[in-house]
Amino acid sequence: MNNLIPIIYASTSGNVEATCQHISDLLREAGFETSLHRAEIVDFKVIQESSVILLATSTWEHGEINPFFNNILGEIEKNDLTGKSAGFIGLGDTRYEQVLFCKGIDILREAFIKAGGKDLSSPLKINGEPYQYFNTTVLNWTNKLIELLKNESA
Ligand SMILES: Cc1cc2nc3c(=O)[nH]c(=O)nc-3n(C[C@H](O)[C@H](O)[C@H](O)COP(=O)(O)O)c2cc1C
């Protein structure tokens, strides 16, 4: 186990990627070490060797997780993740189907918890282009996460 916080994300047009990069910058400014990993190429060992991670995905095609996450989702489903905590970051768009808004991150979160992991806080969910939320919703969510992480390690 190490103190690095890996951020594993699936992103097709770059919205999730930009959001994760921004959150990574905020965490680094607060003194945490982070690493960014694309879900389609990350080794599952990155999750196995961490106690705290961030997982991020967009939603595609009527409530499906971004397919770049499929391999890691499969690994999460067949492994024991007891003792691990994760923060969840979902991007979506209410113009598709409101009930399926950010369903991808819900699928990921449910699988992580079923595998024995726990969530650090309620998921961050972003509707549409994320940039307009960087200094508000994203900043607030990340600050809350930083507080939780500092309390956990105190
Ligand atoms: C074909 C298509 C289907 C989508 N389906 C959904 C959906 O079912 N639910 C949702 O919340 N967002 C949906 N979205 C919105 C994307 O999740 C959103 O645009 C997100 O910001 C994309 O992030 P990414 O480019 O980093 O993958 C869809 C977008 C496209 C283009």
TrEMBL record:
<keyword id="KW-0249">Electron transport</keyword>
<dbReference type="GO" id="GO:0010181">
    <property type="term" value="F:FMN binding"/>
</dbReference>
<feature type="domain" description="Flavodoxin-like">
    <location>
        <begin position="5"/>
        <end position="146"/>
    </location>
</feature>
<dbReference type="Pfam" id="PF00258">
    <property type="entry name" value="Flavodoxin_1"/>
</dbReference>
<dbReference type="InterPro" id="IPR050619">
    <property type="entry name" value="Flavodoxin"/>
</dbReference>
<keyword id="KW-0285">Flavoprotein</keyword>
<protein>
    <submittedName>
        <fullName>Flavodoxin domain-containing protein</fullName>
    </submittedName>
</protein>
<keyword id="KW-0813">Transport</keyword>
<keyword id="KW-0288">FMN</keyword>
<dbReference type="InterPro" id="IPR008254">
    <property type="entry name" value="Flavodoxin/NO_synth"/>
</dbReference>
<dbReference type="InterPro" id="IPR029039">
    <property type="entry name" value="Flavoprotein-like_sf"/>
</dbReference>
<comment type="similarity">
    <text>Belongs to the flavodoxin family.</text>
</comment>
